[in-house]
Amino acid sequence: MSSSGKKKAKRSKTWFQIYAADVFPGQWLGETLASDQDSLIGRNVEVSVRDITGDFAHEKYKLVFKIFRVDGSKSYARFVKELLNRDYLRSIIQRRTSRIDVMSEGITKDGHHVRVFYLITTAVRVRHSQETAIRLRAKQYLDELIPQLSLEELVRSSIFEDPAKINTNIQGLSTKIAPVKNIEPRKIVVLRFGEALPEVVRGEVESRSVSSGKGEEA
């Protein structure tokens, strides 16, 4: 093969489909070009929740996934982060109101170590003592909630209020102290993944094992 032919071979790339593995499992996230499977591992994929739901109201939430497994032309990505759109964030922080940031950290019931940041804005400016009281109540609620939910349930609850009504419950706790205007998940970060293989990938592995006759013996 000539040197020019070798260069062309090196530059040839293939399209790989990207699927979510844990949060929104099985959801198609997009496609990407890569020269080989190994070059995909560790690559980040960013989508807005609107891309998944088609609802413009969800444009403010950005999700970041990281590819960790490739199988043929399919690649699987784990959720690593949720971020609130910066333009939207600036729009809800207004004069004569108070901004209260809440941070909680814990292990989800499926073993992921996460850190959660919530943003609360009040309808009027409040005293420092009121800010502290709201922050403590919201943090205590999140500290107790995180171990009760899987990673996907935590993300879904933060955005869709299902299965846990996080925003509604924080508002109920906060309004006893001061009127609240906005409650948003500013950031959710996975600090360390659990050991279990995501369900979508586990299903692919199990189905391949059965089809190849390598399943467990009865």
TrEMBL record:
UniProt key word Lyase: no
Record key words, sorted: Ribonucleoprotein, Ribosomal protein
Record's GO cellular component terms: ribonucleoprotein complex; ribosome
Coiled coil: none
GO MF terms, alphabetically ordered: structural constituent of ribosome
Keyword Ribosomal protein: yes
An example Gene Ontology biological process: translation
Family of the protein in this entry: Belongs to the eukaryotic ribosomal protein eS1 family.
Protein name: Small ribosomal subunit protein eS1
Source species taxonomy: Archaea, Thermoproteota, Candidatus Korarchaeia, Candidatus Korarchaeia incertae sedis, Candidatus Methanodesulfokora
Gene name tied to this protein: rps3ae
